[in-house]
Amino acid sequence: MLLFGHIGVTLGLFFGLDIFIPRLKTIIDPKYLAIGALLPDLIDKPIGMVIFASTFANGRIIGHTLLFSLVLFLIGLHLYEKGDLRIISLTIGSFFHLMEDQMWASPKTLFWPLLGLHFPKDHKDFTGMEYLIKMFENSFTLNFSISSIPEILGMGVIVILTLHWLIKGFGQNKF
Question: Per the domain annotation, does 174 fall within a domain?
Answer without folding.
Answer: no
